[in-house]
Amino acid sequence: MAMRWWPVLVAAAMMATAAEGFISAKTWSAVRRANDRGGPFVGLVVPNANEMDPVLNSPSFTPTPTLPSYLDIQGRRFRFGAIGGQNVVMVMTGLSMLNAGLTTQLLLSLFRVKGIVHWGIAGNADEGLQIGDVTIPEHWAHLSLWNWQRYGDGPENELPRSRPPATTPATSASSTSPTKPSRSHCGMELPACVNATTCLPRAPRVTRVRRGCSANVFLDNAAYRQFLRAKFGCTPVEMESAAVALVAHQHAVPFLTIRSLSDLAGGGSSLGNEAGEFLAIAAQNAVDVMLNFVPLLADGGAAHDAVAADM
């Protein structure tokens, strides 16, 4: 009778060993030291190198002497430093919702994180804004969960009905504070010119918007852009933020996205080759606003109030 259970016990032991070994003891030790010496951190989540390299090259991002410069874990590099007195751990996700959600989950599983700031560029669905403007959405929606109509069906053949897409409040886990609202972002001077001859019509500005929309779609279609704007009220459209927001929301970790507009999605503006000419300005503007925002987290509710203030 005992022999019958022996293979089961061996298999269970092997499974336990494999589960415990997916991250080495040496790496876990390094993670614990980082949390003990630097946590809780502000988690910085960035899609790609165009938006991360300006941070690494900025004098505002400084190394933390008691922490390693980085840890490589599960295919992601977690970089440590400080911005305005705040210890931060920064990780690049790569493009797409899957990469963004997976990386954010790994970040929150490993490190003591008190809040997440996510930034980058995005397409623009609001013709009232321009390239270089920096948006801070109040909500994020995950779109493009397709329900395809059967071939040959027409308007009389309705698709199965479902509830409207869920939105995740961008500050759903944040606390409020009675302190006087800070409008520090309003006074920021953001660059408008690539060079002496290539400039935007006006200086970019920071603005709070109602909703950003994410999907595994690089949006380059004017008709679809107009549909998203009319149907869902999207302003920035991109490929990561809703995934970051969902994971942060599930962990009850405060979350904020800063997205700078790099082009009018699908074209149609008067600025010609929009993204090609102004990509660097858009990326730098998102970085500058992030670097200005993170130090506010040292003052309890100041960061929340900075977002809540009309911009």
TrEMBL record:
InterPro entries (alphabetical)? Nucleoside_phosphorylase_d, Nucleoside_phosphorylase_sf
Q: Where is the signal peptide?
A: 1-21
Compositional bias (Low complexity): 168-181
The protein's matches in CDD domains, at most eight in alphabetical order, are given as:
MTAN
Top-level taxon in the UniProt lineage? Eukaryota
| One term of GO molecular function | catalytic activity
Return the Pfam families for the record: PNP_UDP_1 (PF01048)
Q: Which keywords fit this entry according to its UniProt record?
A: Signal
Q: Where are the residues of the annotated region Disordered?
A: 154-186
Q: Which Gene3D superfamilies match?
A: Nucleoside phosphorylase domain (3.40.50.1580)
Task: Using the record's annotation, list all stretches that form the Nucleoside phosphorylase domain.
Answer: 42-294
Give GO BP annotations, semicolon-separated: nucleoside metabolic process
Q: What is this protein called?
A: Nucleoside phosphorylase domain-containing protein
